[in-house]
Structures are given as C-alpha cells and as structure tokens.
Write a structure and sequence with these properties.
With 231 residues, this protein is of the alpha+beta class. The chain contains six helices and 18 strands. It binds manganese (II) ion. Manganese (II) ion binds at residues 30, 80, 82, 111, 198, 200-201.
C-alpha cells in the first residue's frame, strides 16, 4: 500500500473542559428507554425490556454550544437530554463491577431525534438510522474527566427550552445504571477507547423549532446552552 486514494477523514473529537486537549471519538452508542417515565411516554412497559442500543456516526457529534442546525427531512425534531459516558479503555464481556474502570469522563448531550421518521420506522419495522444518526444529531458539552468529578450516580438531569423547563429527572432513576449499560453493551461489541455512550433520557421530550434557545445539564457534571439554527 502506498497511500490513501483520497485525503483521510479527520478524527472527530470533543473538547475537554478546562483544557486545550481534546478527546478523540471512535463510535457513538445510545441506549433507548432508560428512564421509566420516558419509556411510558413512548408507549413501552419499562419493567419488561432489557437495554437496547442504536448508534450514531462519530462525526454526528458537535459542540453543544452556539448554533446547531435544524436538520432536513423532518417536521418533528425532538430533544432528549442525556448523560454521556466517554470510554478511555475497552474490552468485551465486562463485569458490571469492573465496568466503571473503562470510563474516562462524562459530558451532557442531546440525542436529537427526527421523531416523525422514527415513528414511521417503528411502524414499518425499518432501521432508526435516519431518525437518529443524521448530521449534527449529537451535540455534547465539553467532557469532564473522572479524575475531577468522579462517577455521578445521582443528580438532577434537566432541559429548558426558551426558559421553560421541559425535561427533568435524576440519574438515580436510570433503569440500567451506567455500569450495567457498559456491561451489557460489552456483550454485543468489543468496546474501544474513544467510544461514547448516550445513557437515555428522562420524560418530557418535545419538538424544537428554529430559533429555540436550549439549556441543559446534569448536576455535578456540566451544563450547556445552544440555539437551534434554521436549515
Ligand atoms: Mn435517547
């Protein structure tokens, strides 16, 4: 092999808080329906379902600041505020008791969702990719290292749109806590350094429109503020 036939894509990365270094991204995994009240609002029984996962491309991650574009092909862009886990180590078949050892840090992110396309996909038994994995579908705050904040196990998770509280919950309401999410995912794929995991959203998901000002946070981790730009 003598070289790449096109210029190699750059490595997507996230800012690290209070640092000029960045965290390189490999893959983005998301867990569905991890707070009972949100599972109910989406029409599911929260007591019956083991965790399930979907993915977004790593370059769908953008800073949760400034203007985030309203995507094409939807009339129902939903916000989902989530605790985001950044892995600094990998492995397969990780025991829950060892799972937090893989975590490098945490951030706060939005799992932006074309809810109208997701509803069609669910109805027709089709993949969720275009409902979940579109460009700029994963705004994330700068990451905070475990070395500075530890492992958040409880704390308010919240989101406001134009100053109005829309989503509110507590990390201790997760059906599958972070360690269980990592352990479960590691039975499906070999986790790698640079992988991100979105850990699910509390209830109150709703539609955003261009011009909306979105603030969100997780107590003990981070907060962010962004605006929704036009197409
Ligand atoms: Mn989500």
């Amino acid at each position: 092999m003598t070289g790449f036939v096109i210029t190699p894509p750059s490595v997507p990365a996230l800012a690290v808080a209070a640092s000029d270094q960045v965290f390189p991204l490999r893959r983005v995994f998301c867990v569905g329906r991890n707070y009972a009240a949100h599972a109910r609002e989406m029409g599911s029984d929260p007591n019956r379902e083991p965790p399930f996962f979907f993915t977004k491309p790593a370059d769908a991650v953008v800073p949760a600041s400034g203007a985030v574009p309203y995507p094409t092909a939807t009339k129902e862009l939903h916000h989902e505020i989530e605790l985001v886990v950044a892995l600094g180590a990998g492995g397969t078949n990780i025991a829950p008791e060892k799972a937090l050892d893989l975590v490098w840090g945490y951030g706060v992110g939005l799992d932006l969702t074309r809810r109208d396309l997701q509803a069609i996909a669910k109805k027709d038994g089709r993949p969720w990719d275009m409902a979940k994995g579109f460009d700029a579908s994963a705004p994330v705050s700068p990451l905070l290292p475990v070395a500075s904040i530890g492992h958040p196990r409880q704390g308010r998770i919240w989101l406001e749109v134009n100053g109005q509280l829309k989503q509110e919950g507590d990390l201790n309401e997760m059906i599958w806590p972070v360690a269980d999410v990592i352990a479960s995912l590691s039975r499906l794929v070999t986790l790698q350094p640079g992988d991100l995991i979105f850990t699910g959203t509390p209830s109150g998901v709703d539609a955003l429109v261009p011009g909306d000002r979105v603030r969100g946070g997780v107590d003990g981790v981070s907060t962010f503020e962004l605006t929704v730009a036009g197409q």
